Amino acid sequence: MHARIVIVDDRSTNLRVYAQYVAMMGPEYSAKCFHSAIDALKWLETETADLLIVDYRMPEMNGAEFISKIRSRTVGAHIPAIIITARQDRECRITALDAGATDFLQTPVTHIEFRDRAQLLLGQHYRQRELNQSLEINRAGQQGNEDKAGKSILEQIIDTTPILINATDRNGKFLFLNSYQAALFGRDPNELVGKSIAAIMDPDLVEREMRRNAIILESGVTIPNFEEKFVSKGVELIFHCNKSPLLNKDNQAIGILTTGLDITARKFAEQHRTHLALHDMLTGLPNRTLLAQWMRTAIDDSESNKRGAALLLLDLDRFKVINDTRGHQTGDVLLRQVAERITSALDSNGFAARIGGDEFAIVLQNLEDNTNVAAICTRLLAKIGEPYTIGGVEQLIGASIGVALIPEDGTSPDELLRLADLAMYEAKSSGRNCFCFFSSQMNHIAQMNAGVEVDLREALNTEQLFLEYQPIIDANSGDHVGLEALVRWNHPTRGRLAPADFIKVANDSGLIGRIGAWVVEAVCKLIADFTRQGIELPHIAVNVSPKQFQYAAMCTEILDLVAKYDVPRGKLAIEITEELLIDNSLKVHQQLAKLQAGGIQISIDDFGTGYSSLQYLRDLPATRLKIDQTFISRIETSATDRAIISTIAHLAHALDMRVVAEGVETEAQFALLRASGCDEVQGFLTGRPLSVDELHKLFANGRARFRLATK
User: Fold this and answer.
1) Domain that holds residue 357
2) What's residue 148's pLDDT?
3) Domain C-terminal end among 392, 408, 438
4) 87-126 core/surface letters (b: 16 or more CB in 10 A; e: else)
């Protein structure tokens, strides 16, 4: 039998690809392609199709509207239809289902997906069409038979109705079956009368039928509204059935009457709706709802069989970089490939779900001990870490995994997710691309951090934060050439707190945006106040967290504050870290260029602790490079660190940057740093952080100068 597949898509490339897929299915399939939905509808007024492949997003009408128009026609009511969509919107799919769509494919569509879905729907369509044709033949035969006395009007009606109808005796032998029922088995009704259902039906179906029949014969009750599967010529069909006792004139049960209505299409739509509600549309993995159900089952099973279970929370490392630089379509392809690798790394005791963005959850059951968990985590990291080729470009990513054990760490799904999340962030903090088991210490820290967050919100509203300013001096002249603004917190019960006590919480909670804006405004206001008093300050550097760059208005807000307080060009500087450059390179470069154009200096802080990319150094509009104090602390004893500092200084000078050494505490360090090429130094040796009043004293009489103590 030849199958005609109609493809409707306004994009020529898609039409060519899908037509090629049809050609690859074999000579018994052909494609008819349309750019226009209106042209396709007009063509289908006079021509027939066996399958419709329709894009959802089209200019003249969407896919749901197209299918709705087809379903309103008598000849198009039963043609299977596949909607192709790039959208992950559930409402979009529900709309298409309501319009009469049979199935969905999500772009990019592979040949295998296309072939398998098409052949499945065509098989069901052909079998249902054969059943209907057999009824038409039966009707035509009866209409052409002049001698109708052999069958009553009721028998003729039953025999031409597209409903499964049969009667069996107490032993399961057919007393009667209509033409539709007989066509399911590919036989004539008269051939089957007197034969046992055991000789005709599959063994599993026979067992279910005999069990139901026995209940009816024993109790005399009807069994209504149950569903049963029939396989007809290799095609699975689903019927909505009813069974009742077949009574003689003495009201005795002599057999069973069974009726069934084909609901295959309806069940297919219902199953798709259920799948949408419980699965992630991009990857096909279960979603949070199904994960919660599975976790409850795992918890119950663990308690009953006394075997361990675990929840793994897996977050991809560097996914955002790929998504931002290569585009969301590449990101989607990558997520699907990751989902496939996670699934392939698990056996029947593992259950994986996608619970958001680039985050996955995995439930492990029937564990002997923690060694099994560690082995599975190692296998997952290895699988995910293998290269991905997308669009001819190789991509590499990693993952961080947090582990919560069941029942040791908890028996509540929500609590286990929270604990696994804590462990996952600990894995990220430990260098990423690793796994970490939850510990009670993590929970203690999390509870403390929650308290800090509440207090920090109050601090922002009650002016508990204040700034101190640490001097930066010229290594050769001793002039004060800069200040770094350092935020402090005057906590009402814990006293004076340094950034190390609360900045991580500020970053994690999102409060860093408010704190950062407050710091910039406080510095701009300070510069303006000192200027009005006739006191000239050197530039003041403000630390900017990578989180702050996620706010689209950050650059505009900084430049607006500079304008509001009339801050001279070059008097405000921002310090950024290498982490920011790696994670958001293109966007950050644009923001930094905008700030530099507004007269704001750029410094790279903590250089040497991250990726230390020469490409980023070359392309950035930075004026200063600050060497991390880790190298400074070892300069007196480590020839390697001295060589590294000299190399960094030489490189920075070649890029027209000044080099700043931070954390300088001894005169020996100062001397070695100056000899190594450092232009500026900062640390307790040259000046502890100063209050606003102390700044007045230091700069009231003009530029201050630092001198080493004379011996």
Assistant:
1) 280-438
2) 46
3) 438
4) eeeeebbbbbbebbbbbbbbeebeeeebbebbebbbebbe
